[in-house]
Write a structure and sequence with these properties.
The complex is a heterodimer of chains A (about 220) and B (about 260).
Chain A: E1 20-27, E2 32-38, E3 42-47, H1 50-62, E4 69-73, E5 76-77, H2 83-91, E6 93-96, H3 108-119, H4 124-137, H5 142-146, H6 155-169, E7 173-177, H7 185-191, H8 193-201, E8 206-212
Helix pairs in contact in A: 3-4, 3-6, 4-6
Chain B: H1 2-20, H2 28-43, H3 49-68, H4 72-113, H5 116-122, H6 127-165, H7 170-180, H8 183-209, H9 218-246
Helix pairs in contact in B: 1-6, 1-8, 2-6, 3-4, 3-6, 4-6, 4-7, 4-8, 4-9, 6-8, 8-9
Chain lengths: ~220, ~260
């Protein structure tokens, strides 16, 4: 089974094929999955089940593939990568996913700024500016929002905090998993702006929405 | 047996890793976590629990003096040997295990079970740097501070209380105490309390990060195991340390007043 048709090497367009931000394939007993996401594109893929989705996300976020999987990130096969090369690739990928949830004992601001404060870049002033802009876009009042811990935030607010953290990191390949899960129609309409906001900040970036196919 | 060997190996590896990564305390979020740990372990504990622990120390002195029919020399020796060297660091360690060891192991087990440790790894944050080092360093500093606090309160309480039990003035007891007090007692307390703090924090972090399974049911098991083993570690370190410093091994090299 193919979740998204991969570019075939024999196809005419393969001559001018864009560089792929991500190419992934998985050979299972009953189904085959092949995913190819060109650089700079916005793609939506639906995987057949939760297990496939989890395996795909884990492989991409770890830049590591298991037996039966093949993964290429930005044109580099990850199978035999060394530690530092793998680390460099991982730094170019970010995700808004329950796998990378918020830390419960930190408030929203600490959650958003933690990676930047730990790695020393970008500066906290830049983090504050990006956060302010993102919150403005989604109509969230920062003063009340940023001091609350994740348990005090609603599902939509948690997604916005995680999105702000993602925008601060500014990955070349951003993966958004199960975006609408647990949200009502009005909330879904609000976060539909994630794509636009990401594109505005990273015109050359690649955005991938991942979901499970509803039978 | 195999599990015990694995736990010892894991605990030693975690301890060495934490000790070798102390420079990461310069990173702002790690430093913040360290200060938070010192505050919750040291400062908040000093208000109620430690005061009660210190009063217990004073009570022990009073009973011992009464039973032994102590004179000035005996009273001061009890204060130094029992309170300063033994009860001070041990009481601090017990308070730390009960207050912070339980909280730390439960918090880390919950983080592991709910996938927050995995989230940290995906964000490129080293678990030792962000979770273990600030807790170990924070608990060490807090244990040292609590030890001094307990020693001060218990010694002061003992000196104030003793004149009611034996025939000696406060000034007599204090001057005899300063005569008998040696720097070894001081260094002994510092090293021992730092070791206690290190052992308790490393043990609780190890169990918190390695729950038996990834369900909510694992949390109480983690806490029980962490607290029991931390208490055993503290008692073992206390016995070994006392034997090494004041026992036959260095006897004569260390001029301690025993």
């Amino acid at each position: 089974m193919s979740a998204q048709p991969a570019a075939r090497p024999d196809a005419p367009e393969a001559q001018a094929a864009p560089r792929f931000a991500l190419r992934y394939s998985r050979h299972g007993e009953n189904r085959e999955i092949a995913i190819a996401v060109p650089v700079g594109s916005v793609r939506r893929i639906e995987l057949p089940d939760a297990e496939s989705k989890s395996a795909f996300l884990t492989a991409v976020l770890k830049a590591r593939c298991e037996a039966g999987e093949e993964l290429e990130l930005f044109g580099q096969p990850v199978r035999n990568l060394g530690g530092s090369a793998r680390q460099r690739l991982r730094a170019r990928v970010g995700a808004l996913s329950p796998i990378i949830g918020l830390i419960n004992n930190l408030n929203a601001w600490e959650n958003i700024s933690l990676p930047a404060a730990y790695h020393g870049k970008p500066s906290l002033a830049e983090v504050a500016a990006v956060t302010q802009e993102v919150l403005d876009v989604f109509g969230v009042e920062p003063r009340g929002f940023l001091v609350r811990v994740p348990d005090e935030l609603g599902k939509l607010e948690r997604k916005i905090a995680a999105f702000a953290r993602l925008m601060v990191a500014g990955p070349e390949l951003a993966i958004i998993e199960s975006l609408n899960d647990g949200l009502n129609r009005a909330e879904c309409a609000r976060i539909a702006g994630f794509e636009q906001e990401y594109r505005r900040r990273h015109p050359a970036g690649t955005l991938l929405f991942v979901d499970i196919r509803e039978e | 047996m195999l599990r015990a060997v694995r736990e010892i190996e894991g605990g030693v590896r975690l301890s060495l890793n934490a000790a070798g990564r102390l420079p990461v305390l310069r990173k702002p979020p790690v430093l913040e976590s360290f200060l938070r740990q010192v505050y919750f372990t040291g400062v908040t504990a000093s208000t109620g629990v430690v005061l009660r622990a210190s009063l217990l120390g004073v009570l022990i002195i009073a009973i011992t003096m009464d039973v032994l029919d102590a004179d000035v020399d005996m009273a001061v020796k009890i204060l130094l040997l029992v309170v300063f060297r033994e009860i001070g660091p041990l009481a601090a360690a017990v308070v730390i295990i009960l207050r912070s060891g339980t909280a730390m192991s439960a918090e880390m087990a919950m983080m592991r079970i709910s996938g927050q440790t995995r989230a940290l790894r995906y964000l490129g944050i080293n678990l030792y740097d962000y979770l273990v080092v600030p807790r170990v360093a924070g608990v060490m500093v807090a244990t040292l501070a609590l030890t001094f606090y307990i020693q001060f309160l218990a010694i002061a309480g003992g000196l104030l209380l003793s004149p009611f039990i034996i025939e000696a003035t406060f000034m007599e007891l204090a001057s005899r105490l300063f005569d008998l007090f040696t720097p070894v007692d001081f260094y002994y307390s510092i090293i021992k309390s730092l070791l206690f703090g290190f052992a308790v924090a490393a043990c609780c972090c190890y169990h918190g990060l390695n729950p038996p399974d990834l369900t909510q049911n694992a949390v109480p098991k983690v806490v029980t195991r962490a607290v029991t083993q931390a208490a055993m570690l503290v008692l073992t370190i206390n016995a070994v340390f006392a034997y090494i410093v004041f026992g036959i091994l260095f006897f004569g090299l260390v001029k301690a007043t025993v």
